[in-house]
Design brief:
It contains 11 helices and 8 strands. It is α/β, with parallel strands linked by helices. It has a single domain, classed as TIM Barrel. It has an 8-stranded parallel sheet with strand order 6-5-4-3-2-1-8-7. It is globular. The chain starts with 5 loop residues before the first helix and ends with a helix.
Length: about 290
């Protein structure tokens, strides 16, 4: 089967459960993610960002994502994450992405509404789901550094009344509200507004998306899911596992230049990291 839509896969998340969404950048981490989903027999969302698209090419990423969904024994959604370029959204839809995120969160509210509503119009016409962001999740997508992502500075959290109006005027399928999380590596424990998660979920009736999931303790993740989060995004933790395993494999290779060996170790590390996140989303402890 091919990729399912975000709406379809999120409908599989019963109360107290979220679907894990993992960013992939190459074939090895994609295969690690898919191995984790297969082993856990859990539906999974695989996604790419604009930065990854610039690095690897949308055509290559779309082909890998479609292939992964086609051969998987679990439901798979192929999602474009944090697209600020409307033309990229259109290209992704044409190449077979089953879900897209149009991120107008840094725009004034009315402009965010306008660009999001247009993305929804185009996507829904061909059966593709749309996620959007309101407020501003801190940090930077695709960031794996230790300096730019901290809880310092002002966070622009979601406003519940604006969220209701935004959802009504755009007809999106999932909402990523800014509730205190940040992309990248946390330099200090985040202060997550669980009350906002619950209020936005109740007021809009939509499944919510938690961005900045890497590094969050299990208790925080579980509380967010109980309050209404149905899609849980992870990128940095998988990147860290991949790079650490690759470096270790190279260091112990005895001078071998066979990148496949190091890649296999990295794939296994990604698989284990993804399995841990999936279990967290399912409420399981092993």
């Amino acid at each position: 089967m091919g990729p399912v839509t975000l709406s379809e896969i999120l409908s599989m998340a019963r109360p107290g459960v979220a679907i894990a969404a993992f960013n992939f950048t190459n074939l090895e981490d994609l295969r690690g993610i898919m191995a984790a989903a297969e082993l856990e027999q859990a539906p999974v969302i695989i996604q790419t960002t604009e930065t990854t698209v610039k690095h690897s090419g949308l055509e290559y990423l779309a082909a890998m994502g479609r292939a992964a969904a086609r051969v998987a024994g679990v439901p798979v959604c192929l999602h474009l994450d944090h697209a600020t370029d409307f033309n990229l959204v259109v290209r992704a839809i044409r190449l077979g992405y089953s879900s897209v995120m149009i991120d107008g969160s840094r725009l004034p509210f009315e402009e965010n509404v306008a660009v999001t509503a247009e993305a929804v119009r185009v996507a829904h016409a061909v059966g593709v789901s749309v996620e959007a962001e309101l407020g501003q999740v801190g940090g930077k997508e695709d960031c794996a550094c230790s300096t730019c992502c901290s809880t310092d500075g002002e966070l622009h959290l979601v406003d519940v009344d604006e969220a209701v109006e935004f959802v009504r005027r755009t007809n999106i399928d999932a909402l990523a509200p800014a509730v205190g999380t940040m992309h990248g590596i946390y330099k200090a424990p985040p202060c997550i507004r669980f009350d906002l998660i619950e209020e936005v979920h109740r007021a809009t009736g939509l499944p919510l998306v938690l961005h900045g999931g890497s590094g969050l303790p299990r208790a925080i993740v579980r509380e967010a899911i109980v309050r209404g989060v149905r899609k849980f995004n992870v990128a940095t933790d998988l990147q860290a596992a991949y790079v650490a395993a690759w470096r270790k494999a190279l260091a112990s290779s005895g001078g071998s230049i066979d990148s496949r060996r190091a890649g296999a170790h990295a794939m296994e590390a990604v698989c284990e990291a993804a399995r841990e996140k999936i279990r967290m989303c399912m409420g399981e402890e092993r």
